[in-house]
Amino acid sequence: MTDSSSATWLPCGRHRLDISYPRVMGILNVTPDSFSDGGRHVALDDALRHAERMLAEGAAIIDVGGESTRPGAPPVSTQQELDRVAPVIERLVCELDALVSVDTSNPRVIEQAAQLGAGMINDVRALQRDGALEAAIGAGLPVCLMHMQGEPQDMQQAPRYDEPIEDAVAGFLAARVAACEAAGLRRERLLLDPGFGFGKTVEHNLRLLNRMDRLTALGLPLLVGMSRKSMIGKVLGRPVEERLAGGLALAAHAVGRGARILRVHDVGPVMDAVNMSWAVLREGCEHD
Ligand code: 9MG
């Protein structure tokens, strides 16, 4: 896909991830209530088989989450979250040698996941919970800082912003990067995510996607997640099980706007969309 001389490596524990070209992160929700695949991967063996398939289809990372962040989702206890994610992370690392990202905001889950061999932290609350920043520093892993307005329980109740959405998101992420650096978390370890669907209307999401240059200007790799989200449902009038084509269009668009990691459910088809979009971009670069 690229020649190794132009590689940009992100150190992720036992793994190194080349993000000089767009990579796909497969979603493995181990919650009984996740919005689009809830309940299907709760059983450990099922979860492992699903992850194995996503890796075979080209996923570079498996994102394991034990607390649903869908709109309206209730919080879970630390023990519940650990009981859900720890055995899955352990087996993904030991049996599949997978690069695992842990989708959590909980400092104890961050610590335990790192001990079990996870290689990345994906925090939709951008390390704002008490102790999360310290836990991430201790883990020594890259962290994805995401923008969210509100909390999952209420974030979609008439979200509004007093400034253009891209300024609000860029301002928040820049402040979180500064807070992380001030606490001792190295900038090279950070990724940024606009948080599509997290306290945003469909108009906010579409504008944010068009204005991703505001976020790439912050100089850190961008991760995006739009897979099967309601922005697709609202634009196309599709239920969650019919959002693949819309998601592929968004994935291709996000690559064109600078995204380097795409968090998705449908790894195989998204790989094709991403690779096609990247081929077009690279051809364009040759003529610059
Ligand atoms: C956990 N989760 C659900 N949606 C997400 C998104 O868009 N980005 C990230 N980083 N995590 C997400």
UniProtKB/TrEMBL annotation:
One example GO MF annotation: dihydropteroate synthase activity
Pfam families membership: Pterin_bind
Protein's name in the database: Dihydropteroate synthase
Metal-binding is among the record's keywords: yes
Pathway: Cofactor biosynthesis; tetrahydrofolate biosynthesis; 7,8-dihydrofolate from 2-amino-4-hydroxy-6-hydroxymethyl-7,8-dihydropteridine diphosphate and 4-aminobenzoate: step 1/2
Recorded superkingdom: Bacteria
Keywords (A to Z) from UniProt: Folate biosynthesis, Magnesium, Metal-binding, Transferase
Family: Belongs to the DHPS family.
InterPro entries, sorted: DHP_synth-like, DHP_synth_dom, Dihydropteroate_synth-like_sf, Pterin-binding_dom
Sections of the chain in a coiled coil: none
PANTHER family according to UniProt: FOLATE SYNTHESIS PROTEINS, FOLIC ACID SYNTHESIS PROTEIN FOL1
EC numbers, comma separated: 2.5.1.15
Broadest EC class assigned to this enzyme: transferase
A Gene Ontology biological process term: folic acid biosynthetic process
